Amino acid sequence: MKKILTFDCYGTLLDTSSLYDLIENIAKTNNLSSIETIHIFSSYEDRLMYGEPFISYEQLIKNVLSYCDMELKTSLFSNYYDAIMKAHQEFPVFDDVMPCLTSLKDKGYELALMSNTTNSLMKYHLLKMNNIFDYVLTSDETKCYKPNLEFFRLAEIKFDLINKDHTHIAKGYWWDIVELE
Fold first, then answer.
1. Confidence (pTM)
2. pLDDT at 35 exceeding the cut of 90
3. With 0-12 CB in 10 A as exposed, 13-18 as middle and 19+ as buried, what is 156?
4. Where are the domains of the chain?
């Protein structure tokens, strides 16, 4: 039986801390509480991702920035959309990821990537990881975000998981494990 490993992307393979550093810097530069700003950003990102009908990740980020402006009584965060998306494009790969993925690939594992992102952002991420993945599934394709069970059902079909020895690897318990339990 073929062995396949599915991976979450953000926080598992890619370091997303630069996004929060950017939000912190925007807040501090404008005499706002960085802790409150990051909390508002994260809360609205989660709320819009999981509590609303599906919208593209780009539109979701635009909406999140608008809500940050509303909550903080500013008009500046919406102006940082391009910088926020650039930060997403530039997320670095954790240092131990490529040696690990290469070793797993050399041992015969199929590798699949599942992410709450867009196909356009995924292109940047795949280049950084030397296009090592056999399969990729994004929210652009599923029209939902993990942990929505539909995301995992579509992964099961696309990656033929029913006929493979499968293990999922993820940092985020809420986004990747809760629905699978």
1. 0.90
2. yes
3. middle
4. 3-15+91-180, 17-88
